[in-house]
Design goal:
Blueprint lengths: L5 E2 L6 E2 L3 E3 L9 H13 L4 E3 L15 H13 L6 E6 L1 E2 L2 E2 L3 H15 L4 E6 L8 H13 L3 E7 L3 H14 L4 E5 L13 H9 L2 E2 L25 H5 L5 H17 L3 H10 L8 E2 L7 H5 L8 H10 L2
Parallel strand pairs: 3-4, 3-12, 4-5, 5-8, 8-9, 9-10, 10-11
Antiparallel strand pairs: 1-2, 6-7
Helix pairs in contact: 2-3, 4-5, 8-9, 8-11
Length: 315
């Protein structure tokens, strides 16, 4: 499956076309389940794991950093650090909020400690911090790159204006520049990325790594009128059923999935992976059994007709 690796923006990093979301590790997946999912993902050729220092601070009793800690333990146990592209984020941990220089420098040390590694492959600003000038943020991140603590940098949840200013400053000063953008983007949420942000990514060669790629599970097709799903995210996902767009998208997904003998989730991810600038959608799995439908995105090629049908249904 390694032939399906894709280049991450303008960087030299190559990643599998599905990033494994680490938000469930230490939340709905315990250590044993997390290890099993990571093992199954990498055994299938996957090499791109996405986490954040804030995962999963929202769980009662958690502090944040639980996901990084489990990934670090797994990397150490498997001895495969060099084979895995580890992406994490800064700015939303309860003890390290925002992007002031001191905050970022302290937070990266904690992430490195928890991940039990001396470098992070891709380091994202989790949420932009508009109280800090982009010049300061970029200069701080550039220092981390120069120190060898971070290989490449990315941004998530940032306005096109601030993103453009950041890229311009990097170019002008010859500093590290963002290579990846992590937007909220999927078949039932297109305006969260399409438009100025996507245009800017295309113009500047940024690779997009969308989160909520399956709309909190809605795009797996398990949410249907009259069904009840036991999931921590059921309420969020179920809300899409109420909308006309949600219903149109489901029916288009059903048709395309049937034509290919594919899972609905695979088709939803394949549509996303085919969009301009998108390198690898992010999706998470609580159990190894949930992975095959996600991993199959590497092998499913949708026809132009399939893609048009889905694009029209989701308009």
């Amino acid at each position: 499956m390694t032939s399906s690796l894709r280049k991450l923006g303008t960087s030299g990093i190559e990643v599998f076309p599905l990033a494994l979301g680490g938000n469930v590790f230490g939340w709905t997946a315990d250590e044993a389940q997390s290890f099993a999912v990571l093992d199954a993902y990498t055994a299938a050729g996957g090499n791109f794991v996405d986490t954040a220092d804030a995962y999963s601070a929202w769980v009662p009793g958690n502090q944040g950093g639980e996901s990084e800690t489990l990934i670090g333990k797994w990397l150490k146990a498997r001895g495969n650090r060099a084979d895995v592209v580890v992406a994490t984020k800064v700015g939303a941990h309860p003890e390290y909020r925002g992007l002031a220089t001191g905050t970022v420098k302290s937070a990266v040390e904690e992430s490195l400690r928890r991940l039990d590694t001396d470098y992070i492959d891709l380091y994202y600003t989790h949420y932009d911090d508009e109280s800090v000038p982009v010049e300061e943020i970029v200069t701080t991140l550039d220092q981390l790159v120069k120190e060898g603590k971070v290989r490449e940098i990315g941004a998530s949840n940032i306005s096109p204006e601030r993103l453009r200013a950041s890229l311009a400053f990097s170019e002008r000063e010859g500093l590290a520049r963002y290579v990846a953008l992590q937007p909220h983007y999927n078949l039932v949420s297109r305006d969260t990325y399409e438009g100025p942000a996507q245009d800017l990514a295309a113009e500047t060669g940024l690779g997009a790594v969308p989160y909520f790629a399956l709309a909190s599970g809605f795009l797996t097709g398990k949410y249907r009128p009259g069904t009840r799903v036991e999931s921590a995210r059921a309420e969020k996902a179920g809300a899409h059923l109420e909308s006309e767009r949600g219903q149109k998208v489901l029916s288009a997904l059903d048709a395309v999935a049937e034509a290919h003998g594919a899972e609905i989730a695979t088709v939803a991810l394949a549509w996303l992976a085919s969009r301009p600038t998108v390198v690898a959608p992010i999706a998470s799995a609580r159990t190894p059994g949930q992975l095959p439908a996600l991993l199959a995105v590497a092998d499913l090629t949708l026809t132009d007709e399939d893609l048009d049908r889905l694009t029209e249904a989701s308009a």
